[in-house]
Amino acid sequence: MSPKPPSPERRWRDDLHLAHTIADQVDRLTQARFDAGSFTVETKPDLTPVTEADREAERAIRERLGRARVRDSVLGEEMPTTGHSPRQWVIDPIDGTKNFVRGVPVWATLIALVEDGQAVVGLVSAPALGRRWWAVKGGGAWSGRSLSSARRLSVSKVAKLSDASLSYSSLSGWAAARRLRGMLGLMQSCWRTRAYGDFWSYMLLAEGAVDLAAEPELELYDMAALVPVVTEAGGTFTSLSWEPGPFGGSAVASNTLLHGAAMEHLGGETD
């Protein structure tokens, strides 16, 4: 009799433990830089900022993965992709760099594992907020200071846009993507709108504190770690063209109940 295959959460348990260990190390590095305010800021070709802390954090993550997961590929924001494997770690060393450089504590390190085209492990660590969130496919979404001290997350049960809270990052991106009219229509249909921004919007969604989050232009490293947390909490995460997961270049996340209604506003291009 052949052995029973491991359950989904057991299959990636060691990977999740590794992500936590890496995040512990990187949190110390980035928090020290943030507290000291001692870093230079450069502008990348895409006009987004990058600091020494971004590069140091990504280098530390890659070095640890290079020792612990030598066969896996690594894709990050600041350095070239390494390796070719059906298992790829996707990392954003500091999501929310603009906040980081201005002393706003809403920034986080994002660590994800994508296997065979699915985001199966996601960890979001925000040391300046004293918060961490994580999920493994099939194992639920959790938040806490450690694996041993955590609470399970669940999205809200709000079923009408008129009762819903929407979080976003900015309106300029929606204008550039020629979808501003749709976004404004969605905002006017919702009970409350706030620009919490970046990873924070999606973690609040997973906690049930907001009901919708959306951004028109994102990279894989911006989204990969968010997807398992949102979906394992019972939410839905697609692109503006309904592609599930983090691969469509944009994000619409919801408590699932509101996804269709939100997409009616956001799904079509506008002037």
From TrEMBL:
The keyword Magnesium applies. Transmembrane segments: none annotated. SUPFAM superfamilies: Carbohydrate phosphatase. GO terms for molecular function: histidinol-phosphatase activity; metal ion binding. Its cofactor is Mg(2+). Pathway: Amino-acid biosynthesis; L-histidine biosynthesis; L-histidine from 5-phospho-alpha-D-ribose 1-diphosphate: step 8/9. It is an enzyme of class 3 (hydrolase). Mg(2+) binds at residues 77, 92, 94-95, 222. It catalyses: L-histidinol phosphate + H2O = L-histidinol + phosphate. Keywords: Amino-acid biosynthesis, Histidine biosynthesis, Hydrolase, Magnesium, Metal-binding. The keyword ATP-binding does not apply. GO terms for biological process: L-histidine biosynthetic process. InterPro entries: His_9_proposed (IPR011809), Inositol_monoP_metal-BS (IPR020583), Inositol_monoP_superfamily (IPR051090), Inositol_monophosphatase-like (IPR000760). Belongs to the inositol monophosphatase superfamily. Catalyzes the dephosphorylation of histidinol-phosphate to histidinol, the direct precursor of histidine. This is Histidinol-phosphatase. It comes from Actinomyces bowdenii. The gene is hisN.
